[in-house]
TrEMBL record:
It catalyses: ATP + protein L-histidine = ADP + protein N-phospho-L-histidine. It is a multi-pass membrane protein. PANTHER family: SENSOR HISTIDINE KINASE CUSS, SENSOR HISTIDINE KINASE YKOH. The lineage of its organism: Bacteria, Pseudomonadati, Pseudomonadota, Gammaproteobacteria, Alteromonadales. Its EC number is 2.7.13.3. GO terms for cellular component: plasma membrane. It comes from Catenovulum agarivorans DS-2. Residues 248-459 form the Histidine kinase domain. It comes from the Bacteria. The keyword Signal does not apply. This is histidine kinase. The chain crosses the membrane at residues 166-186. One of its GO terms (molecular function) is phosphorelay sensor kinase activity.
Amino acid sequence: MNSLRNQLLGWLLPSFIALYTIAAVSLYQVEKAQQYEKLDQQLRHVVNMMRSELLRSPGKSREQRLSIENLQRVLALVSEDERINTLYYQVLNHKKELVLRSESLAEVQLHIRPGPMMYTQAYTEDLTLYIRNVSIPERRLRNRLVVSIALDNAEAISKLSQYKQLLILGGVVFCLLFALILIFVLRKTLRPVENLAQLAANMNADNLSQRFAANAMPSEIRPFINKLNDLISRLDNSFARERQFSNDLAHEMRTPLAAIRSVAEVAQKWPSDNINDELADIELLSKQMQNMVDTLLTLARLDSDNHKLEEENIALAPFLQHIVKLHEKAILTKQLTFKLNEIDADASLHTDKNLFHILWSNLIGNAVSYAPNGTQVKLMHTVGCVSICNVCDGLTEADLDNIFERFWRHDSARTNQAHSGLGLSIAKRCAQLMQGQLTVELQQHESGTQIYFHFFYKK
């Protein structure tokens, strides 16, 4: 299972075992060296004891002290030392003939190697003898005896075996303890993540107001939790907007449908000669519904992710003049004045012509609809920005936070059914698709409060 806990266990536990193995092998080698150093010291001790006893033999001449009989007595005495388990020895004369051998050697003869250093010789399959040679006397070649003193490594092997078992047993115990501690620590450390998974499993569209507690998480996971909370906040806001959109859509569609039904019922109950007026009312309401449906389809098409830009050069002044001309009837009715002389004749930009037309058709239409009668609407252009401004009545800074929301209108009673409240939402989406930005602000002038829409486009 590719879980974080298993991955940590899979890495940390073998790493601990490898480190312990290296440490155990190092400790074993150190102990082994110490045991054989101790064996060498025992051999030197035996040699020194033998020499000391030979020199201290009272009332005997030199020849008697160095005789085979006295040497045998001294070696037997040395063998009785309680610090020595088993002493092996043999004595060769100057002709390299065996003249004395310990019973412990049985039929085995020790090899002679020149020099004072310790050397080894296999004794049995399990035991090895550690040997030192001593010449008696040391300076005379004639009648010199070569005494070979040996000790076996039985005690060293026994202690090393016990030490090895202790290291192995300790390794097993330590590995088990380390594994248990590691499992406990990982379980405790990852418990907030498990709680996070449980909370996420219980989360749905109805309880997106819940948030993950970042403070209870390890510091390494907190950035992820914060981003996750941000994502949930955006989802919550999106669902809230969708619910509001559904409610607003039902309200917007219910009003003209109720009006059509009312006109039809009145026409059926009380027929009159002015049936054309009633049909005209129904036609007007139907057009409003058709306009709303078309607007919603446009917004849905813009919200789709597969919209591809078809950019081309657009001459700004003629383009905006054409859109203003499309609203000429409403402009004349409200006696509005459009001022475009602040836009250079040669000003142009490179963008999607269709999206740019939808954006400015909605912005200009919004200005025509809500500008007071007889006022001026200005279109302006600076490097990287196209703006429109008109006088507005009753708008506040708080209204600007909702002005691009779908179905939002300053008229909270929504008595004006000519507008659906979707135009600015469509303009905002068009600006985003063109990789631009649409902003709004209020400014105070002598003529009153004016609202400015700024479209910052990609240069």
